[in-house]
Each structure stands twice: as C-alpha cells, then as structure tokens.
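Lecture notes, unit on protein representations.

Consider one protein chain, 157 amino acids long.
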Amino acid sequence: MKIAIYPGSFDPITKGHLDILNTATLIFDKVIIAVAHNSEKHGFLPVETRLKLIQESVKGLENVEVDAFEGLTINYAREKGASVLIRGLRAVSDFEYEMQLSQANSSLAPEIKTVFLTTKPKYNFISSSTIKEIFLNNGDISKFVSEPVFDYFSNLQ
C-alpha cells in the first residue's frame, strides 16, 4: 500500500488544498492530511478546530485520514509507514522554498520521496493567509473555502 503524507498548517484549509488532496487520492492508496502542530506557536485556529474542519471537508474521500503531528514531518512519515510526502505548488514562487525543504527531507530520509502537485489555476492565488486577511476585513471567503470552513467562519462574525 502506497501511503502519502500531505503535511501543512491548514490554518484554515482552502479549496486549493482540497484540490491537491483530491489529486493525491487518485494516485496513492492512502493519503494522510497531517496538521503540523508546534506547541510554541499559536495559529489563527486551534489545531483541534482545524482537524474538525478538515474532517468535515473531506467527507466522502474514502482513502483520506486526518491527523496532527508535532516535530519533523519526515519522522512522522516514517511512523506512519509513508513513502511519499505531498507538497502543493500554487506558483513558481513556491518552488524554491519547496525544493529546499524537499532536499533537506531527502537528506534525512532518502527512502521517502517528495511529490509536487499543482492546484488548478483558479486556486493559484488562494492561501490560508489570504483567507484570514479577507475574513478579518469583512470580505466574502465563500469562493475560497469548503462549506464547513465557510460556516465556521460565518459563526465567528
């Protein structure tokens, strides 16, 4: 069984993230969407809330598991028996950072490969930071996030 880890902060998860996840589910037997948790940093949304929103957003995707982890992604991947890390690319500007990360991970665990997946062009500009900025300035985020995420944010206003 080919297991892939799709790590990130997902603070919050966007339609771009979900587009990449959907592609990954067609390629791998199991995809674990893993929320990176750093106990020394506080995200916009608590990790528990992010996990719940992701679970609600991926209902119907049979080969997806939602989890959280702390520490190095590569160590988490080993614990889960994964052979692949999924990294999403929106634009060329993401590539340099993602390549450096991939090479560092390859140095630490050459048996775990990184696969870069691109999102559809209509999601290229969407990031969690953009969603938060729009929301905090009373903009409409409905086009950029899943219904569960939109409902959650709507209840915050």
